[in-house]
């Protein structure tokens, strides 16, 4: 079981903290000869597999590196178009690393803002007055858990569906936020959290939660 990431969103919907705690690696690197037996297409400023699966490479995986050098979206490390490079027989044999696309900082900001809006919509759609909004979203590979404080700060945890104790963890994160961010004289409300003690105690709490350890008094 694992906890994948933590997001903290302010009451205006801005992302003020994000931590990738555990990212499952599913990268696959293979050496190919010409012609490439996978169909690649540009998608959202990156090159992804549109057709053909083999040796752990799946549809939707992005091209992450070519000949050991990380690609930059749709371009190689030296600025060449990835599709044009892979369409030239002179560049073969070529080693390509495929895997799940890593979210950029801008994409994380956008997703946090989108969830903030969905949270508000969920609260408004409720047939009961005073709904708390979305507390959990579930997929086949992860669950998103959300805890909103009385001041509107949202703490979100993405975890393995089998991970237990997330409700307790969310409140522990709120406690850590109160102790090491709000009590920091250099921290301004609603602004990004940059505090080493907050980072250290948050990571410790995540490790305890992954081991299913309880958060008792004084923990």
UniProtKB/TrEMBL annotation:
Q: Which InterPro entries match?
A: Longin-like_dom_sf, TRAPPC
List the subcellular locations: Endoplasmic reticulum; Golgi apparatus, cis-Golgi network; Golgi apparatus membrane; Postsynaptic cell membrane
- GO cellular component: a single term: vesicle
The protein's UniProt keywords, in alphabetical order, are: Cell membrane, Endoplasmic reticulum, ER-Golgi transport, Golgi apparatus, Membrane, Postsynaptic cell membrane, Synapse, Transport
| SUPFAM superfamilies on file | SNARE-like (SSF64356)
Q: Which GO terms describe its biological process?
A: endoplasmic reticulum to Golgi vesicle-mediated transport
A Pfam family per the record: Sybindin
UniProt xrefs under Gene3D superfamilies: 2.30.42.40, 3.30.450.70
Question: What superkingdom heads the lineage?
Answer: Eukaryota
The record's comment on protein family reads: Belongs to the TRAPP small subunits family. TRAPPC4 subfamily.
The entry's function note states: Core component of the TRAPP complexes which has a function of guanine nucleotide exchange factor activity for Rab1 GTPase. Plays a role in vesicular transport from endoplasmic reticulum to Golgi and autophagy. May play a role in dendrite postsynaptic membrane trafficking.
Q: How does it assemble?
A: Component of the multisubunit TRAPP (transport protein particle) complex, which includes at least TRAPPC2, TRAPPC2L, TRAPPC3, TRAPPC3L, TRAPPC4, TRAPPC5, TRAPPC8, TRAPPC9, TRAPPC10, TRAPPC11 and TRAPPC12. Interacts with SDC2. Part of the multisubunit transport protein particle (TRAPP) complex.
- Name under which the protein is recorded: Trafficking protein particle complex subunit
Organism classification: Eukaryota, Metazoa, Chordata, Craniata, Vertebrata
């Amino acid at each position: 079981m694992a906890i994948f990431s933590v997001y903290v969103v302010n009451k205006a919907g801005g992302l003020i903290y994000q931590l990738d705690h555990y990212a499952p690696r599913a990268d696959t690197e293979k050496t190919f000869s010409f012609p490439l037996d996978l169909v690649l297409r540009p998608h959202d400023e990156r090159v992804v597999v549109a057709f053909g699966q083999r040796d752990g490479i799946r549809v939707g995986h992005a091209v992450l590196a070519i000949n050991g050098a990380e690609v930059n979206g749709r371009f190689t490390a030296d600025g060449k178009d990835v599709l044009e490079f892979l369409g030239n027989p002179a560049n073969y044999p070529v080693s390509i690393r495929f895997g799940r696309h890593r979210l950029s900082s801008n994409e994380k900001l956008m997703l946090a803002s989108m969830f903030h809006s969905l949270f508000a919509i969920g609260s408004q759609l409720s047939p009961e007055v005073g709904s708390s909004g979305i507390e959990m979203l579930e997929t086949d590979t992860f669950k998103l858990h959300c805890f909103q404080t009385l001041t509107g700060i949202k703490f979100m945890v993405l975890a393995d569906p089998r991970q237990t104790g997330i409700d307790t963890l969310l409140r522990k994160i709120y406690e850590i936020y109160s102790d090491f961010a709000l009590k920091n004289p250099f921290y301004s409300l609603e602004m990004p959290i940059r505090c080493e003690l907050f980072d250290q105690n948050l990571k410790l709490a995540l490790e305890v939660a992954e081991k299913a350890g309880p958060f008792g008094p004084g923990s």
